[in-house]
Structures are given as C-alpha cells and as structure tokens.
Design goal:
alpha/beta, Rossmann fold, ProC C-terminal domain-like fold, 2 domains, 11 helices, binds NADP nicotinamide-adenine-dinucleotide phosphate
Length: 268
Amino acid sequence: MKSVERLGFIGAGNMTQAVLSGLSQAEYKMDSVLVSNRSPQKLEALKESFGIQKAKSNEEVVDQSDIVFLAMKPHDLKELLPGLGKSFISSQYIVSFAAGVAMEDLSEELPLCKNIFRVIPSSPNTLGMGVVGFYAHPEALAVVKEIVKNRIQSLGHLIEVESEEQLDALMVGTSSGVGFVYEFMQIWQEWLEDKGFSVRESQNMTIETFLGAAQLAFKSDKNFVDLQNQVATKKGVTAEALESMRSMDLDRVLRVAFESGLLKNKKL
Ligand SMILES: NC(=O)c1ccc[n+]([C@@H]2O[C@H](COP(=O)([O-])OP(=O)(O)OC[C@H]3O[C@@H](n4cnc5c(N)ncnc54)[C@H](OP(=O)(O)O)[C@@H]3O)[C@@H](O)[C@H]2O)c1
C-alpha cells in the first residue's frame, strides 16, 4: 500500500459524491482518493468536480486503498464480492453502504477483515442532512471506528447502533422514512390543489409547512406532544382534525407499514 491512509471507492454514484463533497469541504487531499465505477461517465464527472483519481478497475481500488467504500446497490455488491472479496487484506477497513447486505455476509466474503462497517445513508445526506446509521463489526478496533466515522461525518447526523436489528429499524425509520414523509407531503399537496391552489402554490405550502415544523422542533427543547399542544387549542380546528386522524387509527396504519418494511428487508 502506497500511503498512510488512502481512500478508495467502488461505485461513483450519489453516496460517493456525497462523501467526496464533505471531504472536499474539509480540505481533504482529494487527488489521493481513488474511485472505480462500472461505467465511465460518472467517474469522469467526479474527477472534474473533485479532482479524484480514476481507477482502471475495482481490483486497483482494493489493491491501492486503506479504506475501501463499497458504494453500490446491494444486488451489485452481492455479485461483486465473491470474485473480489479474497483480495482484501486484514489491515484494510471496509465501509459498506449496501442496506441489504448483512455483516455476516460481508464477513464471509471478506474472510481476512475485521474492520468492517455498515453505513445506512438517507437521501438528505446528499445535502449533509438527515440521519446516517453506523454499525461496526464486533471485533473492529475502536481507533479504526473513530477514523471511519470521521471520514463520513459530513454526511449527516450519525447514529451508531449496537446491533443489526437496530440498524434495520433505523433504516426503515430514517432512510425509507424519507419516502414515507413524501407520501404525506403528496397527500397534503393534493388536498390543497383540490381546494383551488395551483400545483406550485400547493407544493410550496406543503414544503414550507413540513420544513417549518421540523425546524421548530429542531430548535425547541419541547417534545412533539408539547409542540402539538401549542398549535391545538382545546375544541379548536386542529384538535378536531387530530381527533379524526386518531379515531381512524393512523398510528396503527403507520406501525403496520413500518413493520412490513422491516419484514421485506429480512427477505432481501
Ligand atoms: N442515495 C441514497 O439516498 C441512498 C439512501 C439509502 C441507501 N442508499 C444505499 O447506498 C448505496 C449507494 O447508493 P447510491 O445512491 O450512491 O447508488 P448509485 O447512485 O446507483 O451508485 C452506485 C454506483 O455503483 C456502480 N456500480 C455498480 N456495480 C458496480 C461494479 N460491479 N463495479 C463498480 N461500480 C459498480 C454504478 O455504476 P453505473 O454507472 O454503471 O450505474 C453506480 O455508479 C446503495 O447500496 C444504496 O442502496 C442510498
């Protein structure tokens, strides 16, 4: 291996771009970063944006890097590892972004490595926002864990979990969760459109409402119930609508949906 800490990325998609963006803002030495990708276009774009080095192959990334980010879709990773896994050596750190690939599977394919980390991103990470899930191999070294966390910290709010069950729940709640929020936003927008607002007005009002509520909660030390009580005066409009939602078991609908996401993840 050529340098003290060389970062390598297999996959030049959204998540790699998000990590590179954070590293670049932290003035990391970008020309020491090596990236490979299946198709050439994204690689060229990353070279232009960040000044990274393009690798000729995935093997070159594995051969030349101290920390290897596996930043591809789960099915692509599952196809790649049986051929490439044995090239990794014990001193390397591996960071997998693939939600559907468990630590046991990674360990099996990377038999020499203990410093393996699973990271669950969410789409707001491309803006440096949202939650990032982090789970370390039980035998990973504490010092290595801190190095890896440091390299991905710009992605968003990092939550380390102690078990993969928790990581799966985090994935449903915060990564799939972004998709669930959009489901609500779509319903909000359509209702406003039904009441005569234009598509643009309805979308903007919806975004501002969610953004405002989230920012208010973020900046406040009150819990959600207290914040809700500030809006919902007894026997008023908000209280009436909330009562209607609760009478139709919104809570149960959402919990069943979350659990079905968890079940699907187990079957992947
Ligand atoms: N983006 C998100 O918001 C988000 C949220 C939650 C979880 N994740 C997870 O994070 C991981 C990365 O997501 P992403 O959004 O960055 O994916 P992405 O934009 O689709 O990027 C994946 C990249 O991997 C490349 N690739 C696939 N197979 C390859 C191979 N064998 N060798 C080299 N490169 C290969 C693809 O190349 P091509 O140019 O050929 O497509 C593509 O550029 C995924 O596991 C995803 O499920 C992402």
